[in-house]
Structures are given as structure tokens and as C-alpha cells.
Amino acid sequence: MRLAWLLPAAAVLFAAGVASASAATVTVTIDKLVFSPAEITVKAGDTVEWVNKDPFAHTATVKVGWEVMIPPKKTASRVMTAKDTVDYFCRFHPNMKGRITVAP
Amino acid sequence: MFIRPFAALAMLGVLAAPTFADAADKPTDPQIAHIAYTAGVIDIEAAKLAVSKSKTKAVVDFAKDMLRDHEAVNKQALDLVKKLKVTPEDNATSKALTKAATAERAKLKKLKGAAFDKAYITNEVAYHKQVDSALETLLIPSAQNAELKSLLETGLKIFQGHEMHAEHVAAELK
Q1: Tally of CB atoms within 10 A around A65
Q2: What is the mean predicted confidence (pLDDT) over A20-48?
Q3: Could B161 and A95 be called an inter-chain contact, meaning their C-beta atoms sit closer than 8 Å?
Q4: A13 lies in a domain?
Q5: Chain B residues touching residue A90 (CB < 8 angstroms)
Q6: DSSP 3-state of A102
Q7: pLDDT band at residue A81, thresholds of 50, 70 and 90?
Q8: Residue A36: CB partners within 8 Å, gap ≥ 6?
Q9: Model ipTM?
Q10: What is the CA radius of gyration of chain A?
Q11: How is B117-156 classified by DSSP, letter by letter?
Q12: Do residues B154 and A32 touch, judged by C-beta distance below 8 A?
């Protein structure tokens, strides 16, 4: 079986804390200037994608950190690392707030 | 025409009294649509002036954000009134807003450099606060049509966001 020899490798990766064997994509929808869900929990290596339903440009900005530009009616994403337990906001509309927790 | 030429509005504005009508004097949906659109146009005009006059990146970037957002909101507003077959109606509040904005722009036009930046951003904070309060206390509660109310609620979040953004830029300028 192909899976049989893959399993130990995945286990080693997981134990080393590099990434979970199955990286997931977690979606945050932006509608009428609200990040939804506002709080998400992911694992290192997972992708967070922001789906912008508004006709306005938004950002997911971490103070003194990274920034993802999310154009109107577009989707943008970022792969999260173990260090990405962060509060973020939209630089254009700082009343829009979200939080990402990276679970160990 | 949905919105009359700015100059005509400004002339009419000379007769107008307080900026926002009394809460007791509830505006109708066609009037609310006109007020909301006018509030957007005013910020667009101020932003255009800032883009042409300011040499400070943070100020120019902010002004471009205002242009982009308010043009997008006003496009939504136009689409909505078209769909609802509502003809926006000019009114004392729109006129007073335009009158005040025309005076502010005339003041800004005379300023240069850091003085212009500071005056523009200070006015942006004050203007957005004023519109937030009008949306919250008068326009949203008075709106009858659910779609118009929803658009105004989105508009309120946009204006509140811009107010915070303007405050951040103001802090950077100091």
C-alpha cells in the first residue's frame, strides 16, 4: 500500500512540529465590513483565505507584521506559521477586526 | 439628473440653516438617499483636492482610499435608487452639508504643505464623526426601505472605519 509507507513520514513531520500532515484551508468571509468568523483557529501550515464579497478593498493587517491585500470581490490567502497567533485588522477600515489562533 | 451640479447646490446652500435637520423632522427615503449621496460626494471632492495638493504620502494614500470607497458606496447607492425607482430629493440637510463643505474647501485651497495636511485630516476626522452621528441618530432610524437601511448601515461602518483611519493618519502627522 502506498499509504503505509507515507504514514511514518507524516508522523515524523508532525512530531517535529513542521506542519500537520494534512494542511487545511480555512475561509474567512468579508461581507459588509465584517470578518466572519472573526476568530479562527488553525494549525501551522494551514492556509487562511479571505473571500471579499464587498465592492471595497480591504486588508488583513497585523501591526508590525504581515499584510494581505484583499481587492474588491476577490479572494486572497496566506499560509500560517507557528508564530501566527495574531490580532489583525483592515488598514482601510480599522473598525474591522479578526483574530487567528495557531493551535499547537 | 440624480445629483445637481455642485455649484448649484452650493448656491442653494446659502439659504440653509443647521447642518442636520431636527430629528423630529424625519427625512423621507428620497431625501435620505440624496443626503447619503451628497455626503459621499463631499468627501470625494475633498479627497480630490488633497490628492492634487498634498505631498505627504500618508495623506495622499488616505485621500485615494476615500476616493475609492466613496465612489464604490455611491455607485451602490445609484444602483439601488434605480432598482427601487426612487428619485433622490434635494432637501435642507443636503444643502446645508454642501454649503459647509464648500466653505471648508475654500479654506483648504488657501493652505499649503504641512498646514494643508493637518487641516485636511482634522476636517476628515470631524466630518466623518458628523456623518456617523447623522447616520446613527437620524438617517438609519428614519429609512423605511429595508435595502436602503442596509446600505446606510454599511455606509456607517465605512464612515466609522474612515474616521479611525483619519485618526491614525492625524497621529502620524504629529
Answers
A1: 11
A2: 93
A3: yes
A4: no
A5: 161
A6: strand
A7: very high
A8: A28, A29, A30
A9: 0.80
A10: 16
A11: HHHHHHHHHHHHHHHHHHIIIIIHHH--SHHHHHHHHHHH
A12: yes
E strand segments, B31-87: none
Size of interface A-B (CB pairs under 8 A): 43
**Which residue of A lies nearest to B161 if distances are taken between CA atoms?**
A93
* CATH entry, B28-173, from 3.20.20.140, 3.10.150.10, 1.20.1260.10, 3.30.450.20: 1.20.1260.10
Q: Do B68 and A57 touch (CB under 8 A)?
A: yes
Which of A33, A72, A94 minimises the CB distance to B154? A33
Nearest CB among B72, B73, B161 relative to A96 is that of B161
Is A10 part of any domain? no
Structure confidence at residue A1 (pLDDT) = 47
- Higher per-residue confidence, B65 vs B16: B65
Q: Which residues of B142-152 are buried (b: 16+ CB within 10 A; e: fewer)?
A: bbebeebbebb
* Residue numbers of the domain that contains A91: 22-103
Give domain status of residue A36, yes or no: yes
Overall residue count recorded for chain A in this entry: 104
Residues of B within 8 A of A33 (CB-CB) are 154, 157-158, 161
- Tally of domains in chain A: 1
B161·A55 Cβ contact <8 A: no
Domain-located, residue A2: no
Q: State chain A's maximal CA–CA distance in angstroms.
A: 52
Lowest mean pLDDT of A18-27, A29-38, B85-94, name the range.
A18-27
- Helical axes B146-173 vs B113-134, angle rounded to 10°: 150
CATH code of the domain covering residue A44: 2.60.40.420
Contact between residue A70 and residue A31 where contact means Cβ atoms under 8 Å apart: no
pLDDT (tens digit, 9 = 90+) per residue, B53-68?
999 999 999 999 999 9
Q: Is the pTM of this model over 0.90?
A: no
